[in-house]
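ok new one. same drill as before - structure tokens go in, u give me an amino acid for every spot. 66 of them this time. try not to just spam alanines like last time pls lmao
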């Protein structure tokens, strides 16, 4: 019997902050992220290549995926 545990690791989407292109799906550890935020080292926004802009842009966390 596999129980569905809601862990700290969540899937999120990454969206380009310039053109809103939804380019990446990644996962993050919510607990780690909170610790990083407190230390002022938050992962997001993150610099990633955008296919639409054809350059590196800031990507923001778009939404939680199921
Ligand atoms: Zn873009």
């Amino acid at each position: 019997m596999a129980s569905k545990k809601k862990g700290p690791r969540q899937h999120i989407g990454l969206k380009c902050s310039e053109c809103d292109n939804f380019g990446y799906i990644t996962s993050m550890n919510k607990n780690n992220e909170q610790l990083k935020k407190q230390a002022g080292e938050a992962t997001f926004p993150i610099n990633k290549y955008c296919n639409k802009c054809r350059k590196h842009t800031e990507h923001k966390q778009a939404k939680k995926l199921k």
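The mean pLDDT is 86. and btw The first strand starts at residue 9 and ends at 16.
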